[in-house]
Amino acid sequence: MKLIAAMSGGVDSAVAAARAVEAGH
Q: What letters, b where the CB count within 10 A reaches 16 and e where it falls short, cover 1-25?
């Protein structure tokens, strides 16, 4: 998932998505 997000929207998007999941959103 992170790899696809990184190639599609960039590392920033991947990090933001990962943080959102960890936050519980």
A: eeeebeeeeeeeebeeeeeeeeeee
